[in-house]
Amino acid sequence: MQHRHNAATSDLTTHRLEKSRGQRAVWLLEELGLEYELKVFKRDENFRAGADLGAVHPLKRSPVVGITPAGSDKEIILAESATIVDYVSEHFGKQLIPQRYPEGKEGVLGAETEEFMRHRVSLAFFGDGVSQQLTIHSSSWTTRKAAFSQFS
Question: Which domains does the chain have, with CATH numbers?
Fold first, then answer.
């Protein structure tokens, strides 16, 4: 895919845990054609995130996207897939977000378009729905390892 420069040349770094849903952030950045640095972290012998990911996020969450806006030394850290999709889409992929309000109804409570509300629901499902179901129905680490092996 042809990569394009990020909005005003912001620096993006994606931190993801191997064999995890962290691939979602990479997929989004690729779909948007953005340039980014990818850092992949290994799991420990118990199939958990190692201490090195804790240096990026105190809870060792994955994925994490760091964005340093042009002209700034401060990195914005985003964790959780739905938050990353929402923020990155808002700043780098507005074409992915449906129109929120019909013309003349901006800011009116309950006037959001059906497409926008479906978009919001899909973000919640994308971020938590699938993963919670997988975790609830997995009774052992062996089952979880098998389920996540496709994301390596």
Answer: 7-151 (3.40.30.10)
